[in-house]
Amino acid sequence: MIKAENLTKIFGEKKALDSVSFEIDDGSIYGLVGSNGSGKSTLLRLISGVYRPDGGRIGVDGIDSFNNPTVKSQISFLGDTPYFLPQSNLQEMARFYSSMYPKFDRDMYKYLLSVFPLNPKARLSSFSKGMQRQAALMLSLSSLPRYILLDEAFDGLDVVMRRVLANLLIEGVEKRGITAVISSHNLRELEDMCDRLGILHNGKILLNGDMEGLRLNMHKVQVAFSGVPEMSVFSKLDVIKIEHTGSLISLVVKGDEDEIMNYIKSLSPVFAECIEPTLEEMFVYELEATGYDVKNILS
Fold it and tell me: What is the pLDDT of residues 28-79, one digit of tens each?
């Protein structure tokens, strides 16, 4: 388990992270969303032991990762700009990784060579940004880490390679019990693969939710009446947003879907339907309900 308690990191006069607390369970995929400068990369570097906290603590299985080779050997961190040894090729980097990670799996490396269309003997400096990202992902996955941390994991990858990466991560969780933490500025990239997702803004985690719980507990309802009632009739529901256009009323409601729709139907509407909101809509509604400026957070 990865656990942070009042985690703080300061650069000069700026608090990159401000008293952040959270837990990430083993064998899960955790998505970390936030705009540029929100603190995502700093958080991943603290988890991996690249940075030392200025306050609070961050631990892997209760052990600090900073200056701890044993813990670091279980973590693979892929930053937003992959690093390779000067003038190296993929084969040489695989040998380097195998010397650093005791569980480096040559069979996995060979399998990934069949998945990613890369020349293992070509200089990595000659690769495109997307190809370099694929090479770094190959090395990270072949290391068989318990924890894999990916900063802007899908950056530079085409649609096909994004799907391949998502499938590899899901397979790693299901078959080998790895834990993946993936940062992105795009909620849609993470919607279909994460178990939990948090939104980071100005060094603070604003929301930290279970994906299935969010989906089951939030509903978008559209209802029409021949004579529009007073909005107060919806006060018995846990409404977090309501919009009224002509005879059509759109509601975002928390709670059990059947109970919500039974109450709506008791009001004798002409039309009523429940639509599952997208992940982005759910987080926008949650943030708006707590008074945040969504455009500055998810842009």
Answer: 999 998 877 889 999 999 999 999 999 999 999 889 888 888 899 899 999 8
What is the tens place of the pLDDT at every residue in 163-175?
888 899 999 999 8
Q: For residue range 104-162, what is the model confidence (pLDDT) as tens digits?
A: 999 999 999 999 989 999 999 999 988 999 999 999 999 999 999 999 878 878 888 88
Q: Pull the structure tokens for residue 86.
A: 């000067």
Alpha helices (H) along the chain: 40-48, 69-72, 90-100, 106-115, 129-142, 159-176, 187-190, 211-217, 257-266, 279-289, 294-297
pTM of the model: 0.82
Torsion of CA 58, 64, 66, 72, to 10 degrees: -110
What's the sign of the alpha-carbon dihedral 208, 210, 211, 216? negative
First to last CA, the chain: 30
Torsions phi, psi for 137 (to 5 deg): -65, -40
Q: Residues 155, 133, 204, CA angle at the centre, nearest 5°? A: 45
Q: How far is CA 35 from the centre of its chain?
A: 12
Type of residue at 272: A
DSSP character string of 144-209: --SEEEEETTTTT--HHHHHHHHHHHHHHHHHH--EEEEEES-HHHHTTT-SEEEEEETTEEEEEE
